[in-house]
Amino acid sequence: MILRRAALALLLLLGSLAEVSGHALQPGYLDLRQLTADTWQVFWRKPDVNGAPMAIDAALPDSCMPAVGPDPAFDGSAWVSAWVADCPGGLGGREIAIPGLELQRTDVLVRLQPHDRSATTQRLTPEAPSHVLPETPSTWGVFQSYFRLGFAHILEGLDHLLFVFALIILVRDRWRLIGAITAFTVAHSITLALAALGRISVPGPPVEATIALSIVFLAVEILKHEDGALRLSERAPWLVSFAFGLLHGLGFAGALTEIGLPEGEIPAALLAFNLGVEGGQLAFVAAVLAAGAALRLAVPRVLAQARRAHSAGSMLTGYAIGGTATYWLVQRVIAF
Prior knowledge:
The chain is α+β, with helices and mostly antiparallel strands. Helices cover 53% and strands 14% of the residues. Strand 1 and strand 2 (39-49) form a beta hairpin.
């Protein structure tokens, strides 16, 4: 009875993910492009929430005229507005704020493109909805900013995390799991770098659909697991991880392309974003393994039963993961 209740709770938890996209709500985007010494072209894009613009706004420093732009227009996926602001003395050392962001659950990316130096990107969050623009951004500042962007992206990417979770469930041997996670890391690092540098280009929708399909594959492997008879994906999971890791890297690259890489600091930004992704992934793996260790101590017999092939816990976990991923797959194929 305890096992069935635990399995049902897991099914409801994972199944509820099918009601949301594989990624969290898309962030807002504020682009500031310098035209002359004192004028800036402003592009402001905020997410759509049930057919209306999210209740946030972009506020330039008080010295800028106008500091707030016109009412946004819907472009089919988000609400956008654009204007030219006169900012005597420039923007360096002055504050950009996003009023209302503290009440939301998304982020805003602020991209500053001066005409005399490379562009930089800053992530504003509900906890930190404003930012003082640096006079001269440093390499270390770029590194910190892109590391945080990468860390946040992997933790907000439910499809990437569900793939890693399914991998942990499927691979029972510790060393094989380490090898699989390492292969996944190497693979998505390769395609992330190549795509971000423009060496390869693949349309986003097919990539996102195939990422969902990769999770379906792992769910099927979980359901087909037999005690004492390892399948190829369990004997050599690094093969599966590496192959699908290449696809997931293209998904990471899509997010990085939206943010952009600062000219002159591309190596630092790319390395930092990738390390941020790895940091978030390792934090997630550590959390899952710690939770598993706690369950082994608290309810060892129940957990052992749940991990047996074709047990209620194993089957419900596989179907919950597969059902969620199938929903994403259909949703993304329809979006073609």
